[in-house]
Design a protein that fits this description.
249 residues, alpha+beta, ten-stranded mixed sheet, 6 helices, 29% strand
Length: 249
């Protein structure tokens, strides 16, 4: 068996997230079905770098898969793209050693959340339309308070099975471009719903409903009810996944 790391991109609008769901379409199930066809309807299981929720997109997502025969990486992507639907694309494939895991060996993950403030029908599924004026400087001042290794339980979906809410945030910044605004955050790991809860809370700062320093109190509380309501899923993209052994190639 040869293990491959495969990089894909997908538009999550029509899927109930990455992970297999018994009664709803998922990105994982769709890709596994394609692999199965390649190998004569033999069941093939893939292992993703993490979960994305319903409606969330990925510019770059990695999974690993063990295949019963050796494939040229480009040809493997070609075969997948011939079968995948238009909203999923295989970008690259890499042969790796059997002990490497797409989830556990990622060292950094980066998300972007997109907001547009002028009505635009072409962004309705990939950016959140939010009309109110925002104080971006205040939002960035608040974002700096997220940096470091902390318990982010206040921004986590309740009743998850994770053993710890400790995450290390390396970077958190709002960027204002000509036609939209986006929030970029990088960390070693993320909790369920964490980015959307953080964005919702920083929006409250931008509206003047929360003070910059109140972010410290929200983090310290380790209580989901202290943070703001999560923003809609469709503005969120998993943007980049870092693996040192792929960067070195």
């Amino acid at each position: 068996m040869q293990r491959y790391f495969v990089q894909v991109a997908y538009r999550g609008t029509d899927y109930h997230g990455w992970q297999y769901q018994p009664n709803a379409p998922s990105v994982q199930e769709t890709i596994e079905r394609c692999f199965s066809k390649v190998f004569g309807n033999t069941p093939i299981t893939i292992f993703g770098c993490g979960r994305t929720d319903a409606g969330v997109h990925a510019k770059s997502y990695f999974f690993h898969v063990d295949l019963p025969q050796d494939w040229d990486e480009q040809h493997l992507c070609f075969k997948l793209n011939r079968m995948l639907p238009p909203d999923i694309s295989a970008l690259n494939a890499h042969k790796v050693s059997a002990e490497l895991h797409a989830r556990f060996h990622a060292t950094k993950r980066t998300y972007r959340y997109f907001v547009h403030q002028q009505k635009d029908p072409f962004q309705q599924d990939q950016s959140w339309y939010f009309q109110q004026d925002l104080d971006v400087d205040a939002m960035n001042a608040a974002a700096t308070r997220l940096l470091g290794t902390k318990d982010f339980g206040s921004f986590s979906k309740l009743h998850t099975t994770v053993k710890t809410n400790i995450c290390t945030v390396f970077h958190a910044q709002w960027v204002h471009t000509e036609d939209h605004l986006y929030f970029e955050i990088s960390a070693n790991r993320f909790l369920r719903n964490m980015v959307r809860a953080i964005v919702g809370t920083l929006i409250e700062v931008g509206l003047g409903k929360l003070k910059v320093e109140e972010i410290d109190e929200i983090i310290a509380a380790q209580n989901r009810s202290e943070a703001a309501v999560s923003v809609p899923a469709h503005g969120l993209f998993l943007w980049e996944i870092d693996y040192p052994f792929l960067t070195e190639k």
